[in-house]
Every structure is written in structure tokens, then in C-alpha cells.
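EI: anyone free to look at a 558-residue chain?
SC: sure, send it
EI:
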Amino acid sequence: MNIVKKIALGTMSVLFVASATQAQSLEDARKAVNAEQYQKAKSLFATLTQNQPTPENYFYYGDLYLKLDMPDSAKAVFQKGIAADDKGKYKLNLIGLGTVDLFNKNASAAQANFNKATDDMRKKDYAEYLYIGKAYTYEPSRDLTKAFEWFDKAKENGEKDPELHIAMGDAYKAQNKNSEAVAEYQRAMNLKDNLLNVEVNIGEIWTQAFNFELAESTLKGVIAKDPNYGPAYRALAENYYRWTSAAPNRKEEFLTKAKENYSKYLDLTDRSVDSRYRYLIFLLNAGDYAGLEKAATEFISSPGYSKEYILAKRFKGYAAIEDNNNQQGIETLNNFIAEVDAKRLIADDYVYLGKAYQAEKQDSLAILNYIKGYELDTTNTEVLGNIAKTYFTSKQYDKAADYYGKLSKLPNASFVDWFYLGYSNYFHYANLVNKGSKDTAEIKQTLLAADSAFTYVAEKANNADAYLYLARVEYYLDPVNENDKVKAAFDKFVEITLAKETLTDANKKNLSEAYSSLGAYYIKSDRAKAKEYFDKALALTPDNQQIKDALAALKAGK
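SC: here you go
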């Protein structure tokens, strides 16, 4: 063998060893991510990108930060990955930047990065489509309809890639489409063995479906395969926490098991900052607010805490408010909002503040924060209801009517929403009259709005209260005794009320009002019937002087 050939072979051997080392190192880092050993994964990626600064290593490093909801850190890593790509052929870091754009609610910038990543794809490629699809599955950037559009593109050439089916399973799981999610996970497991993370996901699906026994056996099956696989213990802990709601008589047993399994999870992740941070999320999801407030306070005070984990302050604020520790919650959330990047604020940050201020009877601040929350998420009908209710309880009936009007236009609007739309307009009318308003157009429009809402509830729900208020509104619109609409509404009110097994004092008082009005209706046309109704009214409210006067006038023939 000549010397040149020996050198060439030697070089190939070195390259082969280096390639194997790189693959193994990247595999180790990704394995640590899969096992939720995030601190270890960060350390491995830091070393890996320092020694082998390839675009691929940077991409998976940045993707770890996306999983941890740390978009700023992710962006810095992706930018290094692009800079390391001399030939500009590795496109996934562009997709990473696009995902960061989605986290920051900049859809146009995201699309521009996705376009750059897909412009010169070869016909057989699909990884770009897969990762753009995944970009829409992270919670801060979630748009699962778009995710599936990209997954469908990836399927053309990537049907045999288990990672595609895992991503699709995760998206279906986020939609609570359990059957579809399990089917995709099973396809992935048919393509590759030993996918413990997929089996854990299936266990979590059974938990979501309240099949706690099947979740337990599935997760214990994972632990039997690998007793050191931390996520299985975390999922098992979450399963036991949720199981307590279905079996309150076993609550103490399941809570103990939950804490034991979560402790094992923390041990297997070296009780790192990241795993302790994830424990806060676990407590939030489990609804253990007392535990969360305590754990979050300790975490924020610990040496490992940094602004990377600032969401811990959000969790502490939520927990304090759920625990009725409103002043602490208000202070914590206001500090969090002041410190965090505005792009990371979500509707619930303001909704929780609104609830805390409302509980403290600071209605103006409650409304202000509810509105901010609604502006961040106009699909949140609960917030819309909170705004309307707070305006109503603070007697700002005109504004309450505006928001109940918005609620009434939603497909899932309830009869309560419609009733309070009428109720708000009814009291707004009363305010206008009490203030001596001369705006007859506004007065009439307010009464008509109340009339429309009460009519809807009365007819659709056959509701006695709606008929009662409808009768009153009809009288205000046309204040004469011989008002047929008033009579019709009071007739229905009487019919529905008398069908009740027992009558409350309020029922009797309202019946007396209805009988009095019906008596007045018949004064000119049927005096005997008028007397009959006035007698019924007086029997229910014997001290009512007006009814006595009406009967006396009838007797006197006036």
C-alpha cells in the first residue's frame, strides 16, 4: 500500500470516528431531551455546539429552548446555526426562527422564514414541511389547523418517518382527539421500536379520557421497560392527581402516590432547575394551588432562578389568587407583567388580576384588566361574561348591556346571557328616568332592547321571570291599563308560576303585581273579572293599600 493510500485511509478512519462521535453526541443530547433531563441536555448541547458547531446541532439546541418556552434563547441559537451554515443548505434553523416569530405573534415574519426554508426544496424532501407543522403545535404558537396542512405536505414523502406520526399524534392529542392521536402513535411504534415517549403520551391520553386504570397500567408498563425513564413517573403522578377527583374516598392514597412518583421524576432529572420548574407546571395542572404557591415562592428564591424562568412568577400569582390570597396575587402578577417581555403576556394574566380585584371589590380595576385580557383573546367568552357581570354589579348598566349584547351574539350564548341583556337595559332605563333624562330616543331604544331580550328568553325558555319583566317593559312602552301585550305577558307569568309546587314570598309578591295589572285591564270591560283579580292580589298581599283602594273604587261604582 503506497503512502498516499495509507494517508487517505487514515483520514477516512478519523472522519468515520468523528462522524460516529458526533452522531452519538447528538443522539445523547436528544435522548436527554426525550427523558426531560433538560439541564443535562443544555450542557450536552453547549459542549456539542462548541466542539462541533454544525447547523444541525444548533437546530436541535434551539428546539430545546422552544420546548422550554424560551424563545429569546432559541432565537440566539438558531441565528448561530444559520451563521454556521456556509453553503446555506440546512434550512431547519430558518424554520426555528419562524417558530420564534410565531411565539412573538408575528405571523408575516414567520411566513417569510418558512418561505426561505422551502424555496429550493427537492421533490423528495419533507423535513422542512414536518418542522413547519411542528412550529404550529407549541402552546404559544398553536394553530393546529395550519399544523395539519403542513403535515399533509410532509406525508407525501415522509409517510415512513415515525417522527411525522409522533408530531401528528401530539397535535391530535392537543385537540383531545384521542382515537386519532393513538392511531398515529401506533403507526410510529410500528415503524420504530422502543418509543417510550410515545407510550407515555398514550398513557396521558387515557388520563385525559378519565380512564385512570388504563393510564396507570400503560405507564407502569413503560417503567417496567426502563425504570430510569423519568417522564413515565411524571405522567403517573399526574394520573394519580387527577384520579382523586373521580375517587374522593381514595384521595389521600392517590395524593401520596402522586408525590412519590413526582419525587422519583425529580430524582431522575437530577432535581435540576428545569425539572423543578416543570414541577410548578405539574402543580398548576393538578390544581394544587397551595402547593404551587409554596413551591413557586421557594423556586423564585432559589440560586438557580433566572429570568429564563420568569413564568414561575405567573404561576405564583395564579396560585395565590386561586387560594383567595388576592393581595399577594395582585402584587405578584403586577410585578410579573412589569418585568416580562410584553410578547409573552397572555389573556389569563389579566383575567386573574381582574378576578382578584373583583374579589377585593375594586370593580374599576377589575374591569380594566378584564378588558385587557379580552383584547388579547377575543375568543374568551368567559372574560366577556366577567366584564359584563362586573359592570352590572357596579351598576354601570349601560356598559353591562353592551357586553351582554356581545355575548348574546355568540353561537353558545345562554338564556342567562340573554336575560341579563334585558335586565341591564331595564335598569339602564330606570337610571335614565331617575336622572330626569329628556333623551326620549335613548329611553325608547333602551326599552325596546330590553323587550327584545326578555321576549327571546320568555318564548324560548318559557321562563316566568322573563315574562314578568316583559310585562313591565311593555307597560313602560305603552302605559295604559288596556295594554294587550302586558296582559298576555302577565297571563303567561301567572300560568308558569302557579304550576310550581311551592310558592316563595317573592313569587307571591310578583303574582300580586300580575293580578293587580290584570284587574286594572278589566276595569272598563268586565268589572266582575276585575274584582276577581284584585281579590286574588289582596289575598297574597293583604297590606297593599293600592289594591284596597282599587276594590273600594269598584264597589263604589267609580
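EI: The two ends are 135 Å apart (CA to CA).
SC: 👍
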